[in-house]
Amino acid sequence: MKADRYLLQLKYSDVIKTFSEIGNISLREALDKFYNSQIYIEMREGISDMHCRSDKYLVEELLQETITSHPSLPI
User: pTM of this prediction?
Assistant: First the structure.
């Protein structure tokens, strides 16, 4: 299912802000990591209704993806 583009943009911003806070990284770093993640692709493409998941769940997935993809990065 595809979400409305405006609603997706709101969801992205909430996830990025929460990712920045939980990951203790700058908003710029969070923005970069989010837009280069598999989570973003799945949300954008409507795969598995990822946009329906809670912000906290998406951030936890994003943290896991970041740690798995780049184990040397501080998060």
Answer: 0.85
Whose tokens are 């992205």? That residue is 12
Q: Are 34 and 15 a contacting pair, CB within 8 Å?
A: yes
Within-domain flag for 74:
no
Q: What are phi and psi of 32, to 5 degrees?
A: -60, -45
- Domain assignment present for residue 10? The answer is yes
Tokens at 69, concatenated: 């993809």
Q: What is the mean pLDDT of the chain?
A: 89
Query: What is the domain range of residue 15?
Result: 5-69
- Do 59 and 18 meet the contact criterion of CB atoms below 8 Å apart? yes
Which tokens go with 55?
């912000």
